[in-house]
Amino acid sequence: MAPRAAARLELLGFTKVFHYHAGKLDWMAAGLPTEGENAKRPRAGTVARKNVPVCALTDRVGEVRDRARVLGWDAAVAVNDDHVVLGLLRSAELDKDADQPIEEAMRPGPSTFRPYVPIKEMADYMTQHKLESSPVTTSDGKLVGLLLRSDAVAQAEGCPDCVRKMI
Amino acid sequence: MATVIDRDQLQDLVAQGALLVEVLKAEEYQEDHLPGALSIPLAQIDRETVKTLDQEHPVIVYCWDAA
């Protein structure tokens, strides 16, 4: 659609026309702000907790567990230097042997969700699949935050018109 | 032919004053649009709807995705 719009503008005499190829989906998947009716409604990216502890693959379970629990967390996200999500540690993984490297202890390649997903959709999905937490990432895999099911459900209950059709 | 740009280039161009135009239907624009974007649905792009725009000014168009 946008290429046709660009061509149309050029035919009408516009001389500097650019086409943002990846479009609105790419913008929203990057967790960038939007304007409009939905901008005020909670979504995965706005509800996800940004202060989730992160760790490297070479860290040890015991050190990560202690660091997480001191901060009141029972989860941590394994990331690389670019903050791309590599794995997830929930309570079961954090309870593994303290000397085990994160790379061996974590759940590798967890399902991730984009920041623009409506919170009601997230709450329903996490409840159906019994997910206590899920990483929210940009389209290039970078961590935005960890969404807790309890937060998603609470927000969804407080927002009855949060369902929308994603095209 | 229009220049294809990515998100970073879009942000640079907007910072320099480029005009953003969403060409999806108005209802989709009302739900979500990029900050500062105008709504000119594809089917409504004609001499009348763009007559107030400067033809020499950079314009960025976008829709939902790359499909």
Number of helices of chain B: 2
* Termini Cα gap of chain B: 18 Å
- So, the CATH homologous superfamily of chain A? CBS-domain
What shape does the CA trace of chain A take?
A: elongated
Class from helix and strand fractions of chain B: alpha/beta
- Content of β-strand of chain A: 15-25%
The CATH architecture of chain A can be given as Roll
In terms of per-residue confidence, which ranges of chain B show pLDDT below 50 for 5 or more consecutive residues?
none
* CA gyration radius of chain B, whole angstroms: 12 Å
Count of all domains of chain A: 1
Q: Give start-end ranges of low-pLDDT stretches of chain A.
A: none
The count of domains of chain B is 1
Report mean pLDDT of chain A, rounded to a whole number. 92
Major sheet of chain A: 4 strands, mixed
Q: Oligomeric state of the chains?
A: heterodimer
CATH top level label of chain A: Alpha Beta
What about the largest sheet of chain B? 3 strands, parallel
